[in-house]
Design a protein that fits this description.
Number of helices: 11
Number of strands: 11
Distance between the termini: 11 Å
Strand order of the largest sheet: 2-1-3-4-5-6
Helix content: 25-40%
Largest sheet: 6 strands, parallel
Order of helices and strands: EHEEHEHHEHEEHEHEHEEHHH
């Protein structure tokens, strides 16, 4: 049953593009189950009085028309603005890791002020810019390291990790005939270098994926591929970063996640939900778990149970609603 005062309240749920509806459907369904009337759409102006709540997920840079229209509405007449920032930000000082230079593609988008840019410099600049006009009302980030970095910038935020939804996969009980798999864009320099190094050191590695619908690995085929993998490698584009969705993908499909070292990996616990290993050590770590099925299955089972019962999208959204005073 929806909480009193919630039923019928309107939410404009922003998604990145018209093609990204499948990524938004699970969150919209959860919000509707709480009694909200949800309209999901890409970036578009918002008129005063047209909605009660604006919910943005991803990078605030993706929604320039929405944000410009909200900034033009007097504060007293604005809808409640919730932002769940799930894209890169710099690591805090305690990580002792420098912010990497942008690659050529990122640099071009930065110089053009392209709304598709989602590098950590653009994201941090956009958040600072919007805080000066009081947007958003509730800023949520998906990793604790991002919350810590924002605190260093004197920007208040809340930490709510991305939770599991069924489209990320499930255990199909298939024969696991792939030693190791990495899913990610292979036109990224760090990914290319890491996978080449692993193969040079004897890892029988399958690589799949990309961001485009044509080149990427999505839906049932992705679920089947990860279900065939005994180990799922979480390689990083930038050192120390947590990719919550990549962790969820491996664990949801009961593959053992082996990740490069992560600065503040909460809510995941290395040795309990996944295995942490440097790139140099990863070949030996992969071989160890391939040779010790009981150990591999024990950690994979704990990770699977954690994301499918505790770290769920329903619980993440419920936490955000509570932070926003909507529960």
């Amino acid at each position: 049953m929806a909480p009193a005062g919630v039923t019928g309240r309107r939410i404009s749920f922003l998604r990145r593009s018209a093609k990204s509806w499948s990524e938004s459907r699970a969150a919209v369904s959860v919000l509707e189950s709480h009694g909200f009337v949800v309209t999901a759409h890409p970036d578009a102006p918002v008129a005063a009085g047209s909605t009660d709540i604006v919910w943005m997920r991803g990078s605030l840079n993706w929604y320039p028309r929405t944000l410009a229209s909200l900034a033009a509405i007097p504060v007293a007449k604005r809808p409640l603005i919730i932002a769940w920032h799930t894209e890169p930000l710099p690591l805090p000082a305690a990580a002792d890791l420098r912010t990497p230079l942008p690659n050529l593609r990122e640099l071009a988008k930065i110089l053009l002020r392209d709304h598709r840019a989602t590098d950590m410099r653009t994201n941090s600049w956009r958040i600072r810019q919007l805080r000066r006009v009081g947007i958003p009302d509730v800023l949520v980030v998906s990793t604790r390291s991002r919350q810590t970095w924002l605190a260093e910038q004197r920007i208040d935020s809340h930490f709510v990790p991305v939770g599991y939804a069924t489209q990320l996969g499930r255990d199909l009980g298939l024969e696991r005939d792939i030693d190791a798999i990495f899913i990610g864009a292979m036109n990224v320099r760090g990914h290319t270098r890491s996978t080449r190094e692993l193969r040079r050191n004897g890892v029988n590695l399958v690589t799949e994926g990309g961001w485009s619908r044509e080149k990427g690995l999505w839906g049932d085929r992705r679920t089947e591929m990860i279900n065939r993998a005994r180990t799922f490698l979480a390689l990083q584009r930038h050192p120390g970063k947590l990719s919550g969705v990549r962790m969820l993908l491996g664990m949801a499909n009961r593959s053992l996640v082996i990740a490069e070292p992560i600065f503040d990996p909460a809510p995941y616990v290395p040795g309990t939900h996944y295995v942490s290993a440097s790139l140099a050590d990863m070949p030996d770590v992969v071989r160890h778990y391939l040779s010790n099925e009981g150990e591999r299955a024990k950690i994979a089972d704990r990770g699977h149970r954690f994301v499918t019962t505790e770290l769920t999208l329903e619980k993440s959204i419920a936490q955000i609603l509570e932070l926003a005073g909507l529960s």
